[in-house]
Fold:
Amino acid sequence: MTLLRHKRLANAIKALVKEHHEWRQGCINILAAENVSSPSVREIVASDLMHRYSEYEAHDIGKRWDEGGRYVIEIERIAEDAAKKLFKAKHVELRPVSGHVAIASVIMSMVGVGGRSLEVKGANGGHEWYYLAKHLKPVSYTPDWLPFDTAEWNIDVEGAKRKIRDAKPSLIILGASFYLFPHPTREMREAADDVGSAIVYDGAHVLGLIAGKEWPNPLERGADILTGSTHKSFPGPQKGIVLSNDSEMLQRVRMTIYPGMLTNHHLMNVAALGYAMLEFLDFGEAYARQVGRNAKALAESLHEHGLDVI
Structure:
């Protein structure tokens, strides 16, 4: 390699990364979208896998377009089995590179042109996914909002049932960025069945609590699909996941993810996520309980110092 022409700036980046790392050892960033992975997970992220491609269509992970995938295939099989066991799901898709990509792939595969969605409005803690999805490709469906009880800070169950039966949406989107209580998946299932709607639960912020059994598993309460980010309450690498017990429905999502939304699915993070899920199978329930204890202790302390805590 020739002499680095921009050595001063290159060294500045390395120094800033080091300073950032040292700074992070002594502070806590109160951001719900961040977590810290184990040293073993971080070691895998920095492995040779970060340089590699290994594409496959649909869900035949044994048939790759790229050579040199003999070990990757086994890694992905172990990771998939861990996800199925951890979340009690029959089918899993590990290729989304983020929770955003995971839920967007579900929306794009489930809501066709002229379709309709029902979701939680942003003012009530929801993502308002339509405004994000419409930038990925021409999207021609009508979004609408589930009735919300701000006093209880949860979906208005009876109002939502009426709206589902009236609107007949293709997809009902539950889950949120900010919420205090599990959304009423079981109650929405009854109305969804009446009009043939699918239900996806965006578990991005509570995925670790679901895996640790501190939050109800939406798949056990009637959701067709569970999506999530793997780096928020779940302490894995930055990635997304899609889980379902319906093989046909998940296959539609897979065909949207590849090749429509990505080709390389960041193999180092697949392997790191597999390792993190195996860690969670051993230690996750205690971890999730401690997350709850920490949150309550923080809230009580803030309240004692005169701050309003929701």
About this structure: The mean pLDDT is 91. The chain is about 45% helix and 10% strand. The first strand starts at residue 91 and ends at 93. The first helix runs from residue 7 to 24.
